[in-house]
Write a structure and sequence with these properties.
Helix content of chain C: 25-40%
CATH topology of chain A: MetI-like fold
Strand content of chain C: 25-35%
Order of helices and strands of chain A: HHEEHHHHHHHH
Number of strands of chain A: 2
Shape of chain A: globular
Order of helices and strands of chain C: EEEHEEHEHHHHEHEHEEHH
Largest interface: A-B, 96 and 90 residues
Number of helices of chain A: 10
CATH superfamily of chain A: MetI-like
Strand content of chain A: under 5%
Shape of chain C: globular
CATH superfamily of chain C: P-loop containing nucleotide triphosphate hydrolases
Radius of gyration of chain A: 23 Å
Helix content of chain A: over 70%
Chains: A mainly alpha (279), B mainly alpha (285), C alpha/beta (250)
Oligomer: heterotrimer
Number of domains of chain A: 1
Strand order of the largest sheet of chain A: 1-2
CATH architecture of chain C: 3-Layer(aba) Sandwich
Number of helices of chain C: 10
Structural class of chain A: mainly alpha
Radius of gyration of chain C: 18 Å
CATH architecture of chain A: Orthogonal Bundle
């Protein structure tokens, strides 16, 4: 009886693992298999035409990179500054707890709610037009918690002895921050940056009403123009699921998107592991 | 004098960034609240009706709430046992070197963008469901649940694996010395010790599943009606899918728009509560 | 119960840990295994209850327990560990109540009524001289006990399974004198019902309780024999040096 139980449990555990890995890796295999056929030099270097049914995704690739890089540039300094403040100036335990809580809440808000907020706040309340940099703005807001936590935890791991010796040398807090901690907070934020970038690269919902349009998106040449991104392009193609060419392009675009995301995520996780080993 | 100004200046700049970030969730909440005020005041309890028919002035969102609940419950019912057992297999049965490789792969795969799952769902999953169950369209709540389960699976396995790995190996050695075999150790030691963090993981997965939009939107069928048969094999609608599809269709000043914002608020509140509860549980532990 | 070790060699990842061990442990006697750190004493113990059934561990030679080789393919590991109990150097308490800790192993081997279980717990606690100290908090978490109490609890937990051979891996190294004394008294008492193999760095302790002494250095048995013989007229210089000064030129 005991033996049977033992074998059953072992069997189900292994079965579950095999099923899970098959499903998860199967996703990748399907993507690579179906996407690789659609990718060629033209695909990457040509703009799309005819609602994406023909042509390539050049504008989308450029658009994605554009809003993501600008989002990063917007959120990085704010996150570093907030992490430094939380780590160095915030002594009240209640404030620490509640600021942690606010960051966690911000991190957990669904993407679609960010999209709704962006629509309401930027376009309806502030009166802006659909522009590419609004996409960067909302994506920057989404990136803030990851960056702030990443930087903050790295700052916290600084040994108190180093802190005390610097202050004992007569440095003021400001000098200490400028000369020593700033660099450290940067380093801490780097792994979070890659992970954050990997996340926002694939986002569609937050930017779908404020930065992109259903058709005709090109590389923006001024501030108040919309942008096309790989993720929203996949959405457009997915909605034409009856047309095989659109679907094929969809696989191609997905493969490119997922490659970028994996490279960024891989770098991010690798750096986080390295950080956990070194002080 | 100048040095002090510099000091204060730095502190205030840093403080400004800090407080801006802290204020953001509050801002988001209040913007949604204000824009949905009209819906709550004018439609009120009418929101809880099952029929969404703006032309006839019916703004019931119960069908969407039901759809969200069904899809999340279905996803958890599939993903929780699957991921729990897989994580047990990883920590208890798989050799160490392979375990690390698989874990790294799972961590990275947890970052696949949801739109890609949407494409997969609409092009592969739905036609497959049509074949298997002999139905006219695969775009159903069931497809949504399956897809959602697939989406949260890698993350859950990875998190469960973290929990089980953190149990020191001395515990297992001591249990083995008392004559227990591996499955007895799992049932008598590993699972009871991990109850609390495992429940946290399930809460986290629930929160993530609730907010999922892109994938669900494409495979759910987008029918704003309460499903006729209480079976998941019918098309339906979730809160997120409705927002994603139709928010752009309503003009800003219309009452439909306000009702949609009310839905977004109703979506936001549980995710805030989940974040709050999770943070509290991690501290109390 | 009779245990014989014949030409046992142990290799872990191509490093030889034990070389050609030939020993036997007598029923009803306490054998102390002494030797410098890293000489393979713990590995020997772990071989006896096969706690490291790992693919990297390569055994040759044999260990015969009651006329059966413990390395035989059909030998049940669970049965082995029921007969051969082990207490580790560092006490490892499960995050359950005291009662649940003690019954942890015993529950899996036989069905007990609640009354029998309670009696078993009290019995074993008395056997390790812990009962008086914890009698009014048996249902509280065992994590609140001191290290000495935890180690005795681990011992009670092992005893609840009713082993005939007890393997103790430096069990008093982290304990205060009172707990050490209690444990030593227990070992002497246990001789009536079983055999004890005791690894220790403390030569004075070995003098107090050992019937037999085995001196292991670099994975080999340098000398073994009855306690009186080893402590008064051991044959090799190495043994003499170790037993007197606790240094070894190996």
């Amino acid at each position: 009886m005991k033996k049977i139980n033992h074998y059953l449990i072992c069997f189900f555990c292994w079965l579950a693992l095999v099923i899970s890995l098959t499903l998860v890796l199967g996703v990748i295999v399907i993507l690579v298999g179906k996407g690789i056929g659609a990718i060629n030099w033209n695909f990457i270097s040509q703009p799309s035409t005819n609602f994406g049914q023909s042509g390539g995704i050049l504008y989308q690739i450029v658009g994605s990179l554009l809003i993501v890089i600008v989002a990063f540039l917007l959120s990085f300094p704010v996150a570093i500054a907030a992490a430094l403040y939380k780590s160095e100036y915030l002594t009240n335990k209640k404030w620490q707890y509640w600021s942690d809580m606010m960051l966690h809440i911000l991190n957990g808000i669904p993407s679609i709610v960010f999209g709704v907020f962006a629509l309401l706040f930027f376009i309806n309340i502030c009166g802006a037009h659909v522009s590419w940099w609004l996409g960067s703005l909302i994506l920057a807001i989404m990136m803030l918690p990851i960056l702030t936590f990443s930087s903050y935890f790295y700052l916290q791991r600084l040994s108190p002895e180093i802190r005390d010796s610097c202050l004992a040398l007569g440095l003021t807090k400001g000098q200490f921050i400028r000369s020593f901690l700033l660099k450290r907070s940067f380093v801490g934020a780097v792994s979070g940056s890659f992970l954050g970038l990997a996340r926002i690269l694939g986002e569609t919902a937050p930017i779908m009403w404020v930065a992109t349009v259903f058709a005709g998106g090109a590389i923006p040449s001024s501030w108040s123009e919309p942008v096309a991104t790989i993720a929203t392009h996949i959405l457009i193609l997915a909605q034409q699921a009856n047309d095989p060419q659109a679907v094929s392009n969809g696989w191609g675009a997905s493969l490119i998107l997922i490659s970028l995301v994996f490279i960024l995520a891989g770098i991010g996780f690798y750096m986080r592991r390295q950080q956990l080993r070194i002080q | 004098m100048l040095k002090y100004n510099k000091e204060l200046g730095l502190q205030h700049t840093l403080a400004l960034s800090f407080f801006v970030i802290i204020a953001l969730p509050v801002l988001i909440f209040f913007v949604l609240l204000i824009q949905s005020k009209r819906a709550f005041l004018e439609v009120g309890l009418g929101l809880l009706s099952t029929s969404w028919f703006p032309a006839g002035q019916e703004y019931g969102i119960l069908a969407m709430l039901y759809g969200s609940a069904v899809v999340v419950i279905l996803a958890l019912a599939i993903a929780v046992p699957l991921s729990l057992l897989s994580a047990l297999a990883l920590t208890e049965f798989v050799p160490k070197s392979l375990q690390l490789t698989i874990k790294s792969i799972l961590e990275i795969l947890a970052g696949v963008p949801s739109i890609i799952y949407g494409l997969l769902g609409i092009v592969i999953l739905c036609p497959w469901l049509e074949q298997v169950f002999d139905i006219s369209t695969g775009r159903t709540l069931f497809a949504g649940g399956l897809l959602l389960a697939l989406m949260i699976l890698p993350m859950m396995i990875s998190l469960f694996e973290d929990v089980f790995s953190q149990i020191p190996h001395e515990f297992r050695d001591n249990s083995s010395s008392l004559g227990l075999n591996k499955s007895q150790i799992i049932l008598a030691l590993i699972l009871p010790i991990s109850k609390y963090p495992c429940f946290n993981i399930i809460l986290l997965a629930m929160s993530k599943a609730l907010g999922e939009t892109m994938a669900i939107m494409l495979v759910i069928g987008c029918v704003d009606k309460f499903p006729n048969f209480w079976l998941p094999l019918s098309a339906g609608q979730t809160v997120t899918s409705k927002l994603g599809r139709d928010l752009g269709n309503y003009s800003f000043h219309s009452i439909e728009f306000s009702v949609m914002i009310a839905m977004a608020l109703i979506l936001l509140i549980p995710t805030i509560i989940f974040s709050f509860v999770l943070k509290k549980r991690e501290l109390v532990r | 119960m009779k245990i014989t070790i014949n030409n046992l060699c142990l290799k872990i990842a191509n490093q030889t840990i034990l070389k050609n061990l030939n020993l036997s442990f007598q029923q009803g006697e306490v054998t102390c295994i002494v030797g410098p750190s890293g000489s393979g004493k713990s590995s020997l113990l772990r071989t006896l209850n096969r706690i490291d059934s790992n693919k990297n561990y390569k055994y040759s030679g044999d260990v015969i327990l009651d006329n059966k080789s413990i390395f035989a393919k059909d030998y049940s590991l669970e049965q082995l560990r029921k007969q051969v109990g082990m207490v580790f150097q560092k006490p490892c308490i499960f995050p359950f109540s005291i009662t649940k800790n003690i019954l942890f192993g015993a529950k899996h081997h036989e069905k007990m009524t609640a009354y029998q279980a309670e009696k078993l717990v009290i019995d074993k606690l008395k056997q390790v001289a812990l009962y008086e100290e914890v009698r009014d908090r048996l249902d509280q978490s065992a994590l609140e006990l001191s290290i000495g109490q935890q180690q005795r609890l681990c011992l009670a937990r092992t005893l609840a399974v009713n082993p005939q051979l007890l393997l103790l891996d430096e069990p008093t190294s982290a304990l205060d004198p009172y707990s050490s004394g209690a444990l030593e008294r227990f070992v002497v008492d246990f001789k009536k019902q079983g055999t004890v193999v005791f690894v220790t760095h403390n030569i004075a302790q070995a003098k107090r309780i050992a019937d037999h002494v085995v001196f292991i250095c670099n994975g080999e048995v340098i000398e073994s024999g009855s306690a009186e013989k080893m402590f008064s007229c051991s044959t090799t210089d190495q043994t003499k040096q170790y037993l007197n000064t606790q240094t070894c030129d190996c």
